[in-house]
Amino acid sequence: MSEPMSKVPEKLDEQQTDIANGDFGSENEALRRHLSPRQVQFFAIGGSIGTALFISIGFGLLHGGAGSLLLAFIIQGIMMTFVTNAIAEMTIFMPVSAAFIQHGGAWVDQAWGFMLGWNFFVFEAFLPAFEITAVDLVLTFWRDDIPSAAVITVCIATYGLTNAFGVKYFGEAEFWLSGGKLILILLLYCFTFVTMCGGNPQKDAYGFRNWTKPEPFLEYLSTGTSGRFQGFLAALWQANFIMVGPEYLATCAGEVQRPRTSLKTAFRSVYVRFVLFFILGAICVGIVLSARDPTLVKVLGSGETGTSASSVYVIAMRNMGVDALPHAVNALLLTSIYSAGDCYMFTAIRSLYALAQGGHAPKILLKTTKNGVPIYCFAVSIGFSCLAYLKLSSSTVTVLNWFINLATGGQLVTYIACCVNYLFFYRALRAQNYNRKDLPYCGWFQPYGTWIALIWLGLIEIFWGYAVFLPGSWDVGTFFSKYGMILLSIATFSGWKLFKRTSFVDPYEADLIWARPAVDLHGRLMAEYIQYP
């Protein structure tokens, strides 16, 4: 689809012209609504598909087995559908920048918005470093003497370049990079189907053999039923880290053209992605490689990086003697990892900007360039990516695990907080006699789906670090990497609430008007004067 052509007539006043062109915001917001519908779709793909789906998923296979991995992804997919449903209804109703952060402050409690914003910024700021570390790991497929410091420096520099020139340029870059991800996924699915049917150098129609050898549900940390259950939990923790997406659409909501229609289409595609990318991906991983493959165990089990690929698919290709394809897959994998890190950098910048908008971060962070880039937020976020240099003093797999643990904890807090946001939003709608059927997007099975997701995610947040409490397993570093984000969230919420003496928002006084007039006017003007040739 080509870019829109603006035909804003001269009869509009200056403010209306700005609104039609997307150059508007609420009060001190200076971001620009320049993300086109096609860019929004691919931005969501770029943020939700990265290292985790292609490399980290191997941890779930190694510890839980193919059956546990698939079951974990199905259950988590159902729960994430409920979460997405809640986020979509709120974001399409009130599409502001870093929407769920601002929703928390406006509809729940200012201290809640403070906690949610800083939690989200911190773990999103960690993720570019995670992706950079993964790039260094993937490069060992070709050679193991590439200086890690050089890899890290180049990645940070290129992340800076793609985020420094305005959202429309970032959106265009992500459009093409995310297209490479779709090609990679299609290639891997075709590889799985063809080889399992016998289309490999050995002419071996192996089918679902790797599901039964050793077995679909593996023991982990102990033996018997308890061990298999803990294997499932290990796979579930990976599913929690891998299955993401709705928060990235909410983050860019303040920069989307015609957000009512564009975001509605984009959120609906999230449900499809959960099945086509994540659940089907878990099935393919269990098909192409045994959970006890020696290379998989060496790379992900012992913490040695070696010189081989760490992707399940690349390991499987080399095992089958497919010589050329692993190089192509690894090259596409590098672009996929880079794209995900780029999205995380963008998201970290916008979440910090939203904090400043809400008075939860220094006002100096509100300064933007003429292209709408929050320049000081940009600088702070780039600084966080330098955490990737930790890899220089630790093994790559160890650092990957640190980032995975911190990010998973942060993601859980974010989704839990979004569920709470929705319950307060739902209560305010009822108190102010809003008919939910009149909303731009009305989620289904509400509020029950949100309650189910809230309870499920709360239990995972409590128990996902249980292994550190097992006899002989205590480790201070592991404990804080598992529970550091929830402890930070409790501290920030309590501290801000006590310091500012905030109170929970009365449902009768919750602001359900807010940015809607400007957003609705923008949509009407865009629909009337902007054509897509």
From TrEMBL:
Superkingdom assignment: Eukaryota
Domain Amino acid permease/ SLC12A: from-to ranges: 40-504
Membrane topology recorded in Swiss-Prot or TrEMBL: Multi-pass membrane protein
GO molecular function: amino acid transmembrane transporter activity
Keyword Transmembrane helix: yes
Subcellular location(s) of the protein: Membrane
GO cellular component, one term: membrane
Record field: transmembrane: 42-62, 120-142, 149-170, 182-199, 270-291, 328-353, 373-390, 402-424, 445-467, 479-499
InterPro entries: AA-permease/SLC12A_dom, APC_YAT
Sorted UniProt keywords: Membrane, Transmembrane, Transmembrane helix
Protein name: General amino acid
